[in-house]
Amino acid sequence: MAGALLKQSVGTFRVSYPGESQSVSTFIKAPQPLDAEYFRTRLLGWFDQYGRTHLPWQQDRSPYRVWVSEIMLQQTQVTTVISYFERFMQRFPDVETLAAAEQDEVLHLWTGLGYYARARNLHRAAQCVVSEHDGVFPVESVTALSALPGIGRSTAGAIIAQATGQRAPILDGNVKRVLTRLHGVEGWPGKPEVEKRLWQLAEHYTPQWRCADFTQAMMDMGATLCTRRRPSCLLCPFEADCVAHARGEEHRFPASKPKKEKPVRQTLMLMLRDGNGHVLLEQRPSSGLWGGLWGMPQFDDHEALRAWLAREMPGSIVGEQWPCFTHVFTHFRLEITPVQAHLSRRGGHPAVSGRRWYDPDQPDSIGLAAPVKALLESLSSSSLL
DNA sequence: AAAGCGTGGGC
DNA sequence: TGCCCAAGCTT
């Protein structure tokens, strides 16, 4: 209850009374945080009853398993991650196995999960842990962990808290939602000054003891109770303390990202097949969209496509054009027009590094972007050849 | 500092 | 359907 708060945060009591919220409106713009001990006690009490304890990465906890799960969970929902995590652990049970693998196979297990830089960084980090840290994760500090590719401040905190129980704050989307509502923090949390304030609050509340449970509890609150839409405020242990709830403005927090116009990009995707029905794939540059994955050669226009074919694959014949389909990304809309072509001769293709002939009926273990994978699957059952 | 990076889900 | 967002990090 509010009565457990410290004296210096006495002003926050008033926001529990909606009728008076107007008269204290200047005050509640920047309320004091709750007493940390009060907050932890209530949160952990809630967690003991309602927290999640049966997620795959919560069993058999090790820095390695926690690390892989945290990377997969970046900007990705729990229900999506679970099956990927299980497959990944089966194939790469420890950091040595992962470090020794080919990047292609790592990307293969990442296919469909998105943000493929995560997989490339994960692979590099595994090799770094093995070669530079003797196979032991540097969980002694946020700084040491953050030095590994793909691990930022929040992920480092999560790994330390979950794998060792040591005190380390986190600040992910769930925690941001809980904290912005609890304190009525205005502004988009992606803005540096807002994020700075949220880190201060996270630092304030994070305890020395039961830190694994505490950080998990914050995420569980955000994921199951303090949800983006229709939060279950009546079940929340901080109903009486929450600034947003007192104002009846839960939906306003966190403020949404300023939106920008989505550009439309168009591209041609060459589906070149040889006499065996195999499809030509190229490895994409290691940075940028679908970096490091395999895909069909891409062109801006037909002229570029024809010129490339004449130069690289003499004897090929351009066939029909498939209907354009659209893939919507976060920041742009990609209109893809598949163009079919085939080689008139049989066999005898020179092996070129970065290129391969892919049999849609017997897929290799390589990384494919979701739309490319879908196209290849449609080829395997079609009779277009 | 701000943009780039995927995909699937919810409404 | 279109839009917003999800256990963020890198450049």
UniProtKB/TrEMBL annotation:
Keyword Ribonucleoprotein listed? The answer is no
Q: Which domain of life is it from?
A: Bacteria
Extract one GO molecular function annotation from the record: 8-oxo-7,8-dihydroguanine DNA N-glycosylase activity
Matching Pfam families: HhH-GPD (PF00730), NUDIX_4 (PF14815)
Write down the chemical reaction(s) this protein catalyses. Answer: Hydrolyzes free adenine bases from 7,8-dihydro-8-oxoguanine:adenine mismatched double-stranded DNA, leaving an apurinic site
Q: Where would one find the signal peptide in this protein?
A: none
Q: Which GO terms describe its biological process?
A: base-excision repair; mismatch repair
Cofactor detail note = Binds 1 [4Fe-4S] cluster.
The main enzyme category here is hydrolase
> EC number(s)?
3.2.2.31
Its needed co-factors are: [4Fe-4S] cluster
Keywords noted in UniProt: 4Fe-4S, DNA damage, DNA repair, Glycosidase, Hydrolase, Iron, Iron-sulfur, Metal-binding
Q: Which Gene3D superfamilies match?
A: Helix-hairpin-Helix base-excision DNA repair enzymes (C-terminal), Hypothetical protein, domain 2, Nucleoside Triphosphate Pyrophosphohydrolase
Q: What does this protein do?
A: Adenine glycosylase active on G-A mispairs. MutY also corrects error-prone DNA synthesis past GO lesions which are due to the oxidatively damaged form of guanine: 7,8-dihydro-8-oxoguanine (8-oxo-dGTP).
Can you tell me which family this protein belongs to?
Belongs to the Nth/MutY family.
List the PANTHER family hit by this protein, alphabetically: ADENINE DNA GLYCOSYLASE
Protein name per the record: Adenine DNA glycosylase
